[in-house]
Amino acid sequence: MSDGAITKTDSRILSALQTEGRLTNQDLAERVGMATSPCWRRVRHLEETGVIQGYRAVLDRRQLGLGVLAFVRIRIDSHSEAEARTFEEGVKRLDNVVACYSIAGDADFLLQIVADDLDSYADFAMNVIRRLPRIKEMQTTFVLKEIKPFTALPVKAPA
């Protein structure tokens, strides 16, 4: 992987870790058909090169009392780099915004937001999001049912 390409072994390791990030090195090595030392070295290399960026627990938002999931499309009224950066920095400080993307099309940003309920979402939207700098337009789409929430990236092995 010195040239940055993901190997077949790497793809097996990455798939296994995305499914179960708490695997011991021994269990991971057995699952991908490797000895423990080379497996540990591959994982360490994937971490050091930034392919693996961390390990997290996947939480059920409803169990945490976060019953509302919404996507908010935002247009800002200035497209200067400084204004966009100011907006981005403001969004990064908001715990209820669990993801934010700069997008192409008829909006500038797409935010994924969680809230306890509709009233708390309304309060957050009107008193926090609307107060961010340079917002021209804001459109909310509420999730009625999560069909396929994000769980893992597709890891393709080389041909």
Automatic annotation (TrEMBL):
Q: Does the keyword Ribosomal protein apply?
A: no
Gene3D superfamilies in UniProt: 3.30.70.920, Winged helix-like DNA-binding domain superfamily/Winged helix DNA-binding domain
Q: Which UniProt keywords apply?
A: DNA-binding, Transcription, Transcription regulation
A single GO molecular-function term is:
sequence-specific DNA binding
Q: Domain HTH asnC-type spans what residues?
A: 6-67
Q: Can you supply one Gene Ontology CC term for this chain's record?
A: cytosol
Record bears the keyword Transcription regulation? yes
> What InterPro entries does its record include?
ArsR-like_HTH (IPR011991), AsnC-type_HTH_dom (IPR000485), Dimeric_a/b-barrel (IPR011008), Tscrpt_reg_AsnC-like (IPR019888), Tscrpt_reg_AsnC/Lrp_C (IPR019887), WH-like_DNA-bd_sf (IPR036388), WH_DNA-bd_sf (IPR036390)
Name the Gene Ontology biological process terms. Answer: regulation of DNA-templated transcription; response to amino acid
Pfam families the UniProt entry points to:
AsnC_trans_reg, HTH_24
Under which name does UniProt file this protein?
Lrp/AsnC family transcriptional regulator
State the species of origin.
Ectorhizobium quercum
